[in-house]
């Protein structure tokens, strides 16, 4: 009974304490509520007082799109607003660019725009003035193949140009051999990813320029896929440190050799993707692997950088988007021009200034000996054989310089195909852009009209491209095994959202316009470059 009485007294005491506490709390909460009510009412009153009651149906000078997350606002941004407003019209750091910076005034923007406009106009004027207006339809002493990445230019190099020009005719360090070495005065062939600014190192009056363009959207996809494909080859190593050490040792042993990491733009894109792939693989390993949701290889974040993040990264903005226009204009980050960075920066900041770059790029396309289109593969190849091939055959057939055609090489043999090792033990010594295999003794044989014709050139091309594609396909398949289940296919590309396609189109507005212009040039070329009869020389007096 004593314990019961004690417990009862304790319970009574607790009830009294709780009652007092409740009264104190209620009193305290009433005070807090009143304080909060005052704060909210004050805010609401000032907010309503600050509203402007003018006609809301009139679009004012500044449009503020209040984007509530996950409402589809990005669709409106890319599919409406990016088409209605120039990049230069956007407030600094607006939308997905952190927070608004109110310190930049309109007057400052106007001043910067005027300065940029002056810089770009000055560059454009000097660029157009330096163009040579001689007959563009004649193959001159030096052929400069301006290879825009991911357009199929390497096929032309191995399956056309390697049959038309001897190794000894190539300019030192051309194509994938870093940058041009102009010390060899009598070279006849320059095939390179260097942009048009390399013309400052060449004898303009003796140089013919050719190039191939590709649909800009497809080229962005291809650049993304190839960057990942090459980077994925390093995943045979346990970690990034191991891969870098092995790479360093192999490159030290093969001095003078060339790797993908030496070549623009891959020397920037591949290391970026390589580091990203290792980082994602390590993150999955720490979590105990699995995860991976969905089957879209372009949005498989556990394995590879999603495409939508890739295209919005500053590296892609600098190198990938509008890459063809900048390359033909001579304004890439690999340019020989000192002012290229400043001009490119101004164009990227103020979209309307891109028109000046387009004018220069279009003028240069007009002055080229040949402009091909990746999408019109067969017609482009035939045209190349009849425009460039026929003139080269004619030009070298009458020469005694021993720098003419590789006439007797058997198309499709290993001598025409890069020595690519697709095995899992792939290292940089077996570069994605390896040195081409040596040609036979025909490298020093002087061709005659009987040795080579445009028909034989095209027949050799067909055999060569078949072998080359087979090798490249196998290499790609082996590489993508390292990032399974991600696998880039045409079917997967067709499933990409329209919004993402629109975003890529918007980001590549210059390339889109230049490609349309190139299509017009291509159509005109077709009218005047029909296949010639076997052995028939190109008529130099032909007017296009």
UniProtKB/TrEMBL annotation:
Keywords, sorted A to Z: Glycoprotein, Membrane, Signal, Transferase, Transmembrane, Transmembrane helix
Domain of life: Eukaryota
Tagged with keyword Chloroplast: no
Membrane topology: Single-pass membrane protein
Location of the protein in the cell: Membrane
Signal peptide: 1-26
Record bears the keyword rRNA-binding: no
Name this protein carries in UniProt: Protein-tyrosine sulfotransferase-like isoform X2
């Amino acid at each position: 009974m004593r314990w019961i009485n004690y417990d009862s007294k304790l319970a009574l005491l607790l009830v009294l304490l709780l009652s007092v506490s409740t009264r104190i709390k209620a009193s305290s909460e009433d005070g807090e509520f009143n304080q909060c009510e005052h704060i909210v009412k004050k805010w609401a009153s000032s907010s309503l007082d600050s509203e402007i009651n003018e006609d809301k149906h009139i679009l004012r000078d500044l449009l503020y799109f209040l984007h509530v997350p996950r409402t589809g606002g990005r669709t409106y941004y890319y599919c409406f607003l990016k088409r209605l407003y120039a990049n230069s019209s956007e407030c600094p750091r607006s939308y997905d660019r952190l927070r608004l910076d109110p310190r930049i005034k309109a007057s400052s923007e106007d001043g910067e725009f005027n300065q940029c406009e002056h810089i770009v106009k000055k560059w454009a004027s000097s660029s157009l003035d330096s163009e040579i207006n001689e007959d563009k339809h004649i193959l001159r002493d030096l052929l400069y193949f301006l290879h825009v990445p991911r357009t199929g230019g390497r096929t032309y190099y191995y399956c056309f140009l390697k049959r038309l020009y001897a190794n000894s005719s190539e300019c030192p360090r051309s194509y994938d051999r870093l940058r041009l070495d102009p010390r060899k005065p009598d070279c006849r062939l320059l095939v390179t990813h260097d942009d048009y600014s390399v013309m400052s190192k060449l004898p303009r009056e003796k140089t013919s320029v050719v190039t191939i363009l590709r649909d800009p959207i497809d080229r962005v996809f291809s650049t993304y896929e190839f960057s990942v494909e090459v980077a994925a080859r390093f995943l045979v190593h346990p970690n990034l440190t191991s891969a870098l050490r092995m790479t360093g040792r192999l490159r030290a042993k093969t001095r003078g050799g060339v790797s993908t990491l030496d070549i623009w733009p891959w020397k920037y894109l591949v290391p970026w993707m390589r580091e990203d792939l290792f980082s994602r693989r390590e993150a999955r390993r720490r979590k105990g692997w699995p995860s991976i949701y969905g089957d879209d290889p372009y949005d498989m974040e556990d394995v590879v950088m999603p495409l939508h993040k890739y295209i919005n990264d500053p590296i892609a903005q600098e190198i990938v988007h509008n890459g063809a226009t900048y390359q033909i204009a001579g304004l890439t980050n690999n340019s020989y021009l000192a002012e290229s960075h400043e001009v490119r920066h101004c164009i990227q900041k103020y979209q309307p200034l891109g028109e000046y770059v387009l004018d220069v790029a279009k003028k240069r396309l007009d002055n080229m000996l040949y402009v091909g289109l990746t999408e019109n593969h067969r017609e482009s190849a035939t045209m190349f054989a009849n425009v460039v091939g026929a003139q080269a055959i004619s030009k070298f057939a009458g020469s005694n310089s021993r720098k003419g055609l590789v006439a007797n090489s058997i198309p499709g043999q290993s001598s025409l195909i890069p020595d690519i090792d697709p095995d899992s033990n792939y290292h940089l010594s077996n570069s994605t852009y390896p040195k081409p295999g040596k040609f036979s003794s025909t490298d020093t044989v002087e061709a005659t009209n009987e040795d080579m014709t445009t028909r034989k050139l095209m027949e050799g091309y067909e055999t060569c491209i078949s072998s080359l594609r087979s090798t490249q396909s196998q290499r790609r398949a082996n590489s993508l095994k390292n990032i399974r289940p991600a696998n880039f296919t045409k079917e997967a590309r067709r499933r990409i959202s329209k919004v993402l396609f629109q975003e890529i189109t918007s980001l590549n507005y210059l390339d889109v316009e230049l490609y349309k212009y190139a299509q017009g040039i291509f159509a005109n070329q077709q009218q005047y470059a029909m296949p010639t009869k076997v052995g028939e020389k190109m008529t130099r007096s032909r007017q296009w």
